[in-house]
């Protein structure tokens, strides 16, 4: 838990954000500023700032399976995934997340 991190606060339940899918490793919620008709964020429960700081292979696998499970849950058969890593690549929230974009 990082006290200054918006996603840690969401995970803690500070904003009553609806999770479209969750398990012991991750939560999935809708992006507040969607760039596609369906735009989900798959977010690990632990605070990892970006992909550059992730070395847990099991968690990496869980996150990708979380993408699949969340897509299935909202009825997405086709979707794109995106991970922005670093400010220059457009990362704004420094708590690792995978964007899932579809119609
Ligand atoms: P990134 O640019 O990859 O760091 O993506 C951060 C994403 O988080 C952006 O698409 C924002 O719209 C989204 N976002 C920021 N704050 C919230 C929030 N409180 N609830 C849902 N999505 C958020
Ligand atoms: Zn965090």
Would you mind describing this structure in some detail?
With 103 residues, the protein is α+β, with helices and mostly antiparallel strands. It is 24% helix and 22% strand. It is built from two helices and five strands; from the N terminus they run αβββαββ. It has a five-stranded antiparallel β-sheet with strand order 1-2-3-5-4, with helices on one face. A hairpin with a 7-residue loop joins strand 2 and strand 3. The longest helix has 18 residues. The structure holds adenosine monophosphate and zinc ion (ZN). The site of zinc ion (ZN) has 6 residues, from helix 1.
Q: Can you tag this structure with a few keywords?
A:
103 residues; alpha+beta; globular; binds adenosine monophosphate; binds zinc ion
Blueprint of the fold:
Blueprint: H1 6-12, E1 21-22, E2 26-30, E3 38-44, H2 57-74, E4 79-82, E5 98-102
Antiparallel strand pairs: 1-2, 2-3, 3-5, 4-5
The structure holds adenosine monophosphate and zinc ion.
Largest sheet: 5 strands, antiparallel
- The general outline is globular
List cofactors, ions and other ligands. Answer: adenosine monophosphate, zinc ion
Per DSSP, the total helix count is 2
Helix content bin: 10-25%
**What's the number of extended β-strand segments?**
5
| Average predicted confidence as pLDDT | 98
């Amino acid at each position: 838990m990082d006290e200054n991190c918006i996603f840690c606060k969401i995970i803690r339940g500070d904003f009553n954000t609806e999770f479209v899918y969750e398990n012991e490793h991750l939560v999935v919620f809708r992006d507040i500023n969607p760039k596609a008709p369906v735009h989900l964020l798959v977010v690990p429960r632990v605070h990892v700032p970006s992909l550059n700081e992730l070395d847990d292979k099991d968690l990496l696998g869980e996150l990708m399976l979380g993408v699949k499970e969340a897509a299935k849950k909202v009825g997405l058969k086709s979707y794109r995934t995106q991970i922005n890593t670093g400010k220059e690549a457009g990362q704004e929230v420094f708590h690792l997340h995978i964007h899932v974009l579809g119609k």
